[in-house]
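It is worth pausing here to work through a concrete case rather than discussing structure prediction in the abstract. The textbook approach is simple: state the sequence, then state the predicted structure, then interpret. We follow exactly that order.
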Amino acid sequence: MMRNKSATNEDDKRGETSEDIAREGVDYISQVPIEILHHILLFLPFEYWIILGMVSKQWKDLLQETPILNLDENKIVSKMRRQIRSVLHEEQPQSYGLDECKQRFAEFVNHLMLNHSRCLIKYARLSLQYEPRTIYASNVNNWVHFLMTRDIEKLELNFSSTPNTYCKLEGLEVRRTTTAQTFEVPHQPFDPKFKSFTLNNCKLKASKFGSFMNLKVLYLKDVDILDRSIGQLVSKCPVLEDLYLERCSVTEKFFVCKQDLKIKHLNLLNCLTEKWQIYMIDISVPQLTNLLIIGRFLRSSTIRNATNLVDCSIDIDMQFSDKDQGNYLALMMTNLRNCKTLALSSWCIQILPTLDIELSQQLQGSFTNLTSLRFAVGYLKKELPGIVMLLQSCPCLESLMLEINHKAKHTCFLRLVNDTIEPYQPEAFRLDNYLENQTLGIFCLQNSLKVLKIYGLTGQNKVILIHLIEFLLRKALVLENLVIYHDLPDECETRESAPCVRDLNQRRTLQALMDLPRASSVVQVSVEKVEF
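Step two, the predicted structure:
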């Protein structure tokens, strides 16, 4: 009885306390540790932050410390339209609902920036579909000015939520923007404080800005760069380390610069020179450690003073080549010979043997620091001379990786004869049984190659694959590990249902590779399953 009475009294007390709390406005949320409040904020849409600031002083103060602004027009407007559709019980919103929601989005952004002019913002992202006729187009400059002048650590601006389209013209891709007019970042003497800046779908002329004194990472995607050269661009960023240019449109000699660049990581992904995906490179990068080039074609390129280069990847994807492409690639590679890891596409491997004899001699044995080599190959006959040439260039190679590329095709070589373009076969591909007739020594196979990895067994030319692996195993005297990766189903799954022809062919190829003779007496063979 006493226990029940006590419980009743406690319940009554709790009820009185709850009423007192409601009457007196006691704020228990403010007693929650700040670390937990930060964690809670990460799961809430930003529009709810303002409401929380009205509920608790602790929340209001928290918003002024490290808020994260994610102003995504697509998400916010879509949410508004769903709410309207729910209220009106409509399956599809009316056309006027979109304009109304865009207006509400603009009002929301204006209100947010007005109430957070003194906040310390850690990360800010503004993403919208910019059109000059958009109802809030006149506000965009003000929004950009606000974000560029705040104490922000990381900023991302995206002015097109619709992906750019590309069309092919004579084998090359030309970008066609889907927006009526590309937004141009205002020419104002900004002195931003952020360390990371991502800019999408706009025009940029960095020379019109002040200095980006703290900027270390610059990512430009689908940006029309109006500066004359890469030197002019990075001169505004004295501590810039990472530069990513993806599908950017630049001037014809943008990548030509005499002064040393302090960049450590350089990524050039499918950039355009005004209209064509062909550009010349002539830069000096003494601090460069990582280089990635993805494109459709090559021009004469020189990357000077890359003495600290660690990782290099060149991925050119084209179906044809002329007599100069092999020389351009070899010239670039001789300037990258200090790298420790190198990755090349099938096209690069196929065109490399067509270079002039002088460049071939310079390339042979020049990659003395390179210990890891990766090929994206289609196991094509035209790849064999290039693979042998590259192995001859890497006397200290320790790890070789062959990665299947299902889209790799035989490159068509073209030349101009009497004002007519016609196909031809370079001398390097006229020798039958190329590997059997290979007489020059490959020092890495004799002295240093310890690991050979093979990714994928689904290539059509399995005869070429087995032929190549047999050659490597027969020459690799100190090989320790042969690793074969596959995507075959487990044996138990195969028993329950009849295996398809593809799986049977892969298993036969796998068994043929495992049965190949090996020159090394200590090599260990392992088979691992991966998802390609």
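Step three, interpretation. The first helix runs from residue 2 to 24. The chain is about 30% helix and 25% strand.
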